[in-house]
Amino acid sequence: MTTQRPSENAIAAWTRLVRVSTQLHVKIEQSLKNQGLPPLSWYDVLIEVHRAGSEGLRQFEISNKTLLPKHNLSRLIDRLEKEKLVRRQTCSEDGRGNLILITEEGTEVLKRMWPVYGSGIHEGIEGSLEPEEVLMLAELLEKLTTGSRK
């Protein structure tokens, strides 16, 4: 592990990245709440299960795709199942695990959530940046995601 100290610019970038992310999350969560819709974590799980289609996803796959803590994800899936937004199906591969599949009700919730979520993304990013800046930001964040200086 390196013990190098970050530059002042790196500290400023980190602080601003976390602050903007937090502000956008809070704003979008509030907009969803104002519309009587569930929180973003529900959307994150539902969209991944929806994308998987009839194949469904195992819980660890959802965890890998959403980055939600495992203990929170387990409870969240229980809640989504209780609300009839997802269903569990025994995995035919090994019979031990479950596949998580989205229900029609879950798909409807996604459809109601997206306009609010999408609007928050639009306002939070495209409301402040020019199109070429949005592209540049996406490219820079991809570099941070992959750890590549290319």
What would the keywords be for this entry?
150 residues; mainly alpha; Arc Repressor Mutant, subunit A; 3-stranded antiparallel sheet; 6 helices; WH_DNA-bd_sf; MarR/SlyA-like; MarR family transcriptional regulator; HTH_MarR-typ; DNA-binding transcription factor activity
Give the overall pLDDT as a whole number.
92
Major sheet characteristics: 3 strands, antiparallel
Structural class, from secondary structure content?
Answer: mainly alpha
Task: Bin the strand percentage.
Answer: 5-15%
Number of domains: 1
- How many beta-strand elements? 3
- Unreliable stretches (pLDDT < 50, length at least 5) are none
Q: Indicate the percent of residues in helices.
A: 55-70%
CATH class bucket? Mainly Alpha
CATH H-level superfamily title = Winged helix-like DNA-binding domain superfamily/Winged helix DNA-binding domain
Question: Which descriptor suits the 3D outline?
Answer: globular
Topology as H/E string? HHEHHEEHH
Figure out the total of helices. Answer: 6
CATH T-level fold name: Arc Repressor Mutant, subunit A
What does this structure look like?
The chain contains six helices and three strands. The protein is globular and about 50 Å long. The longest helix is centred in the first third of the chain and has 27 residues. It has 150 residues and is mainly alpha-helical. The chain has one domain: Arc Repressor Mutant, subunit A (Orthogonal Bundle). Helix 1 packs across helix 5 and helix 2 packs across helix 5. Strands 1-3-2 form a three-stranded antiparallel sheet. GO terms for molecular function: DNA-binding transcription factor activity. This is MarR family transcriptional regulator. It comes from Natronospirillum operosum. It holds the Pfam family MarR_2. InterPro entries: HTH_MarR-typ, MarR/SlyA-like, WH-like_DNA-bd_sf, WH_DNA-bd_sf.
